[in-house]
Amino acid sequence: MVSKVHPWAHVKYHRHPWVCMKAQRSIQPASVSLFSGAGIGDLGVEYGCKIPVEFFAEFVEERAALIRENFRGREVIQGDLETTYKTVIKEWNKKYRKKNPMLITLSPPCQGMSTNGAGKIASQVRQGKRPEYDKRNKLLLHGLEVVKKLMPEYVLIENVPGMKNTVIMWKKKQPRQLLRLIEKVLPKGYQFISFVVDFADFGVPHHRKRLITMGKWMGEDYDTALDLQESPPDWIRARFKKHVSIKDTITDLCKTTDHKLHREPRINEKHLEWVKAIPRYSGKSAHMNKCQKCKKSKKSEKFRVMKCSKCKTVLPRPHVIEDNEPRAVKGYLTSYRRMQPNQPANTLTMNSGVVSSDVTLHYSMDRVLTPKELLRLATITNTRNKFQHTEFPWADKYDFSSAMKETDYLLQKNIIRQTIGECIPPLAMQVLVDAMMNDWIIK
Question: Is residue 360 exposed (0-12), middle (13-18) or buried (19+ Cβ within 10 Å)?
């Protein structure tokens, strides 16, 4: 477990003697969450760091409704931040007058920045099906307008690593590196640092590499600057823990039950045949399955070969039949693949319920992961088995049932899978905010 975060009143945020000579800032011990998703990462702020998240801004109505249900009495501003950012500013000032928030967090949409979609995006640009500069990438600028007006003590921006190379069209249609616009848009007063970190290094039991950009108020005479680093600073590395494996996290959940969060995920017969042929605990893909008739043979046919060279039987590999002959489906060795049992799970995505997506199969069972298993891997709920015992202060504070029908739980893509696929794990958020407020010393 990470160390307990100091209550806001004890955070050492005026470390420079000359800052005290200036007008005293009035800090409201509260957080503003922009691009909130369903507010899952905010659990780490609210309960882990004991900083109330008083304002949320979320585009998707269904996710905004989940925030209202799980953060009762808080202000949720639903809509596109391009138009609602002024409302966020207005409502904050209405409630707290001119006080500055302790923290503003931002997780802008990553679809235009993700390296996973870079090739597809480039192809669509060439075909004229997509603008050269994704409009969604500019949403960060609207979030920075909120930062500019409210001037929080701390800022945390989370996105995919590709964000550090993202370019947008700025004033007079000049291409500018998105991250560097922080220095242009914000007034004097802040020091920013940006680095890539894998949340698995914090003890989160799945890999999730993210670009983290932190900002800290230094004083009104301080020139706002961004230090873009290749790796996490030492005070972040000091929070690293031993990796937690998927097996140690969900080993007690191998057998599914009648519970709505842990029912056997649906899978068609053909897919099930391919999945069953993947050796358990192997971390291998169905694309490399061996012949089931020639089981004693140690030979493995090459990738995309669909018939056994010895007995000519169709291999139990992902394929379609064309002109009475098997043809390998398009895909990579990461699809139809089991996770490695003794490592953190692979990155949880919105397609966690899809057999053919990247590394979604259980390490030993013939299925994808259930929502109950995903909730553990995302550190939303506790793990309690002979290998691991967690005590997250937010573990029983979030519920999806208000947004779910009984038939939704078995869907390949439901609200649980979608939000977990895009959220900051609460444990990672807690560690980052704690370290930012208590360990970051700028000389």
Answer: buried
pTM given for the model? 0.90
Q: What is the pLDDT of residue 55?
A: 98
pLDDT of 239-254, one tens digit each?
999 999 999 999 999 9
Per-residue model confidence as pLDDT tens digits over 390-412: 999 999 999 999 999 999 999 99
Q: How far apart are CA 321 and CA 291, in angstroms?
A: 18
* Structural domain contains residue 250: yes
Residues 338-361 have a mean pLDDT of 97
Provide the token pair at 32: 């503003």
Q: What is the DSSP string of 80-98?
A: -HHHHHHHHHHHHHHHHTT
Average pLDDT along the chain: 90
CATH number, domain with residue 314: 3.90.120
> What value does the mean pLDDT take over residues 273-291?
97
HSE value, Cβ hemisphere, 13 Å, CA-based, for 85: 19
- Report yes or no: 363 and 283 within 8 Å, Cβ to Cβ: yes
- 76-108 burial code (b ≥16 CB/10 A, e <16): bbbeebeebbeebbebbeeebeebbbbbbbbbb
Q: Do residues 233 and 258 both lie within one domain?
A: no
Are both 310 and 172 inside the same structural domain?
A: no
**Rounded to whole angstroms, how far apart are CA atoms 40 and 226?**
28
The reply to whether 3 falls in a domain is no
Residues 89 and 43 in one domain: yes
Range of the domain at 312: 245-387
Q: Alpha carbon 384 to chain centroid distance?
A: 23
